[in-house]
Every structure is written in C-alpha cells, then in structure tokens.
C-alpha cells in the first residue's frame, strides 16, 4: 500500500512539473542549467515509474486527463513501457482535446527515440491516418532524426496538415536537397501548405520564397514572428528596412514594425524604438526590441512602471468586453528617459552597418556563445538566426531535455 502511494506521488509530481517545464523552456529568466535541473527532476520521477513496471503504469493511468500535465505523464510512461493500450486511449482522446495533443507531442520529444521507436515506426506506416503520421514525423523532427522515406511520402500527402508538417520538418532538419520538392507548393491553394512551403524554402535558402514570406509576417503569432525573422534574415538590410518603414506608417502594423526593427538589429534605429517606449501599447515590445539589438536588459535603472493609459489584460469587470490576454504581459516596462540617457553613452560601442543580435554582430560564433549562456528565450531566438547563417544544418533543439543538451559536445 505504501509503495503504491509512492508511485502515485511520482505520477502526480511529473504531472505537476510538466506545465512549469514547458513554460520554463521558453522563459526569459531561465537558462539551460536551470532547465536541466528541472528536467532532471521530471526524469527522476519518470524513472521511478519506469522501474516499477506495471505498477507504475497503474499509477499514471489513474491520473485525471483534465490535469494539465497528465497527458504527458501517461504518454511518457506508455512509450517507455510499450503500453499500446494506454497510448491508443490517449490518441483517441486527442481527437477532441488540444491539451492531450500537446502532452503526446511533449512525450514523443522527451522519450528517447530508441525507446519509443515501437510506436513511432507504427505511426509512420503509409496506411496510418494522417494525424498519426504527423505524430510520428514530429517525434523524429523533435529528436533531429531524419525519418527518411516517410518524410518524402508525407511531403506528397493529400492531407494539408501532414504535408505542411513535412515541409516544416524538412526545414528543421536542414534538408536542402528537398528544396526542389518544396518549391512547387510556394503558390499552393491551401494556406497551411503555402505558408509551410514558403517558410521551409526560405529557411533552406530560397530567395524567392523569402520575399513571398513577407506576406505572412505577423508579430501577433509564433508562426508569424518566425516568418518575420526568416524574411528579414533572407533579405538585404536595405530591403528589409524599407518593408519595416512602410509598416511604421500604418497604425495596424505598428507592432510589426517595432518587432521587425528589433530583428533587423540596426543600432541607428534605436532612437525610434525609444520614442515608441513612450506609447503604452508599444512600450514593452519596444523595450524587448531594444534588448535584442543591444543586449542591454530592461532591469535596474532602465526599468520603469506601467504608463498612463496602459491596458494590461482582461479585467474582473463583467461589463468589459475586451477579454484578449495582454500580449506583452511577460515583458518588463522600460523607462524611456533612463534608456535614452544610457544609450547616448553606450551607442559608440556598437558597430554601424552590421546586424546586431543581443549586443554583438550577428555571426555564427556569437550565436554559439549565446546558445551556451543565454536564457531560454534568447536561445530560442538565436537558434533560428543561426540556422539562417548556416543553411543545411538542423535547427538547434533548444527545447530538448536540458540534461541531454548539456551532455552534447
């Protein structure tokens, strides 16, 4: 009885830690060593369940699937134990619950591919439904493992989500040899396929696709921001600056302009960013763009408070119809006056005529340094920039289990 309670505690701890782990994997205040410590805790509890065999399985399947970390916990144990029944139950439930899909994806990325291959190989069978093939493909891509023929088959699939996932996987894996298979879909009728083809082709080095990608650039979504990074990285600095300057004159694209200037990395544009810090709706985003260029964090004397008129997210007022979350909630408020004074002294240190990334010229060696020492948010940004500098190399897997990242040479 006591042993059962220990196993239940292991399962509950994994389920409780997983949402925090996913949040920390992209956090500005968490570095790789901190992520690795948290990930070792997750793995230690999973190891306890793994060693307990069938009793560990019983402890995990007893979890409430409605709890945020439960799908990951159940899926990870099922993959480790070759428990096809539990995994099949999750896959059935995933058709209706996005949270379960996310947990499955997390488990497939966590459990080493050699231990999960019994399930992944089955998912990649050509007769499997497209959603299962996406899971199998996603597992290989997460581990930066080339699945071979199943990737090529998925690139020709009729199901748009699977085909788009295959294009994205080819880009993440650095498969430049597959560019001829991607380019024909740059003008596809399907929006997901068209976007995925343009993003993948541009990341792999196709100049025409990069220009088309500007139409997908949008700072309000993760995919849109990635498109913006790739579009800027594959354009000339002058061409990218012209596109961003056009947005500055359009109120609805002002946020895109601020985000774009941070990515462009031109220190001569910093004064405009400082002016944007005086606008409540753009202040924190402009502060983040300033940091991306200069490497100067918004902290200490450079940190301010909310500006008058700032909206910081949904209120408790039932009459308030605006229920949209604050997109900049995680960003600090800058003090524009203090930053202006600091910048007047610091600007001479920064080279003109080069794209800057967190304080130094955008070069492979600088990216590698930031991938070793930067926060998870910085590492996420740097990984995509590095892939643009070295096309044909896999994108660095900055969200992989931290202890495995540290173990790599």
Quick structural summary:
The protein is mostly helical. The chain has helices at residues 2-24, 32-51, 54-61, 70-81, 84-94, 98-110, 113-123, 130-142, 149-155, 160-172, 179-182, 191-203, 207-213, 222-233, 237-248, 254-264, 270-276, 283-294, 336-346, 364-373, 376-389, 402-407; strands at residues 356-357, 360-361. The protein is globular and about 65 Å long.
Notable traits:
mainly alpha, 409 residues, two-stranded antiparallel ribbon
Instruction: Using the CA coordinates, give the radius of gyration.
Output: 23 Å
Shape: globular
Largest sheet: 2 strands, antiparallel
How helix-rich are the residues, as a percent range?
55-70%
Q: How many H/I helical runs?
A: 22
Order of helices and strands: HHHHHHHHHHHHHHHHHHHEEHHH
Task: Look at the helices and sheets and give the structural class.
Answer: mainly alpha
In the sheet with the most strands, the strands line up as: 1-2
Number of strands: 2
* Mean pLDDT figure: 94
The poorly predicted ranges are none
Oligomer: single chain
> What percent of residues are in strands?
under 5%
Distance between the termini: 44 Å
Could you please describe the fold and organization of this structure?
By secondary structure, the protein is mainly α. It has a domain at 245-308 and 329-407. The protein has 22 helices and 2 strands. Strands 1-2 form a two-stranded antiparallel ribbon. Strand 1 (356-357) and strand 2 (360-361) form a beta hairpin. The radius of gyration is 23 Å and the shape is globular. The model has no long low-confidence stretch (mean pLDDT 94).
């Amino acid at each position: 009885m006591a042993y059962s309670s220990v196993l239940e505690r292991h399962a509950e701890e994994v389920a409780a830690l997983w949402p925090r782990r996913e949040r920390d994997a992209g956090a500005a205040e968490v570095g790789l060593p901190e992520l690795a410590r948290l990930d070792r805790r997750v793995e230690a509890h999973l190891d306890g369940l793994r060693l307990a065999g069938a009793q560990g399985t019983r402890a995990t399947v007893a979890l409430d699937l409605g709890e945020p970390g439960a799908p990951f916990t159940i899926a990870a144990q099922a993959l480790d134990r070759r428990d096809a029944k539990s995994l099949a139950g999750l896959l059935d439930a995933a058709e209706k619950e996005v949270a379960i899909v996310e947990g499955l994806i997390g488990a497939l990325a966590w459990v080493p591919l050699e231990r999960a291959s019994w399930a992944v190989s089955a998912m990649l069978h050509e007769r499997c439904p497209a959603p299962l093939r996406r899971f199998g493909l996603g597992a290989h891509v997460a581990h930066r493992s080339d699945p071979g023929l199943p990737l090529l088959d998925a690139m020709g699939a009729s199901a748009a989500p699977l085909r788009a996932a295959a294009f994205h996987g080819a880009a993440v894996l650095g498969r430049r040899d597959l560019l001829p298979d991607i380019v024909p879909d740059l003008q596809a009728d399907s929006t997901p396929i068209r976007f995925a083809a343009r993003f993948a082709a541009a990341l792999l080095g196709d100049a025409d696709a990069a220009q088309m990608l500007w139409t997908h650039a949008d700072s309000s979504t993760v995919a849109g921001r990635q498109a913006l990074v790739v579009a800027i990285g594959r354009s000339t600095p002058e061409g990218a600056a012209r596109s961003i300057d056009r947005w500055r004159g359009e109120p609805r694209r002002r946020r895109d302009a601020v985000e774009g200037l941070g990515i462009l990395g031109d220190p001569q544009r910093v004064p405009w960013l400082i002016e944007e810090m005086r606008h409540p709706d753009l202040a924190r985003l402009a502060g983040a763009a300033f940091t991306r260029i200069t490497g100067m964090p918004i902290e200490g004397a450079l940190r301010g408070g909310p500006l008058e008129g700032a909206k910081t997210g949904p209120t408790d007022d039932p009459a308030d119809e605006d229920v949209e979350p604050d997109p900049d909630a995680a960003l600090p408020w800058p003090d524009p006056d203090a930053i202006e004074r600091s910048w007047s002294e610091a600007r001479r240190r920064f080279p003109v005529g080069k794209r800057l990334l967190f304080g130094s010229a955008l070069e492979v060696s600088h990216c590698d340094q930031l991938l070793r020492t930067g926060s998870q948010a910085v590492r996420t940004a740097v990984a995509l920039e590095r892939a643009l500098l070295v096309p044909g190399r896999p994108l660095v897997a900055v969200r992989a289990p931290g202890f495995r990242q540290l173990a790599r040479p």
